[in-house]
Amino acid sequence: MLTRRKRAMMLLQAPPAPPIEEATIQEVTLLSLPDVPLLQVLSLLPVRDLGAAGLASPRLAALTRTHATLWRGKETAELFYFEDVDGLLDLLRVMPPVHKLKFVVRRSPIVVAQFDSFTRFSRANAFTTLALEGPDTESCAGVVRELKPHLEYLEVSGVERGVGVLFHNLLGARALRTLEVRFESYFSKCAFRWPWAPAVALPRLRTVALKSEGEYFDGSRIRGPDPSLLDALRSLLRAHRLLTDCCRSRRVLH
């Protein structure tokens, strides 16, 4: 029979009970959310913050780039300022495709951007138009190179030099339908010639508008643009015409 003393000794010698495990509290962060609730959060952000979110994380960048509904209906007159074109290109890489580009060459080192055609309609495109002011034609060419796969309309004004670089970056812009270039006091020579090759053709091009503006006075007489510029423009039109004729011939043969 266990006495009170023996029972107390047995309790003292028994192994201690295991400690009660505390409930583990999982920290919930934005990136820990599944895609559906994460997209709902992103849809509440204005344009500038939405772009910043895309730049902050590869996963967020994939969502902001591929889900046009995040941007749809967000009309904005806000201007975006960049010290160079590289900052703008970083932002464009986390946005849905731009289909229309208007670029004005200004003698200023700052790049000014405005996404001025956000649509409220239930279309696939989040926005259509990017209006830019940049320091030179080379900056425009860099933007064209980034947008080229989806670019349908390109308008460039204030071009004083560098049209060869611009045309070179248009090679293979297969979605382009309209090209409008306004030259201003363009005296530079242009060695670029548009090659005739299906891989770099512009099969959807329907409208080309070229306009010369500004003063063409070299100190002694009034003259037009350098003839090499006109040769470059002719090469573009000739290559497009040859491609069009070739396509028509194939249709007739078939």
- Radius of gyration, taken over Cα atoms and rounded to an integer in Å: 30 Å
The largest sheet is:
7 strands, mixed
Order of helices and strands: HHHHEHEEEHEHEEH
| Shape annotation | elongated
Describe the protein in words.
Helix 7 (163-170) links the parallel strand 5 (153-159) and strand 6. The chain is elongated. It has helices spanning 4-13, 35-42, 47-56, 58-66, 85-92, 137-147, 163-170, 227-253; strands at residues 80-82, 100-105, 111-115, 129-134, 153-159, 178-184, 207-213. It is of the alpha/beta class and 254 residues long. The protein contains eight helices and seven strands; from the N terminus they run ααααβαβββαβαββα. Helix content is 36%, strand content 16%. The protein has a seven-stranded mixed beta sheet.
Question: Key features?
Answer:
single chain; 254 residues; alpha/beta; 8 helices; 7 strands; 36% helix; elongated; F-box-like_dom_sf; F-box_dom
Give me a quick take on this structure.
The chain is α/β, with parallel strands linked by helices and 254 residues long. Helices cover 36% and strands 16% of the residues. The chain has a seven-stranded mixed beta sheet.
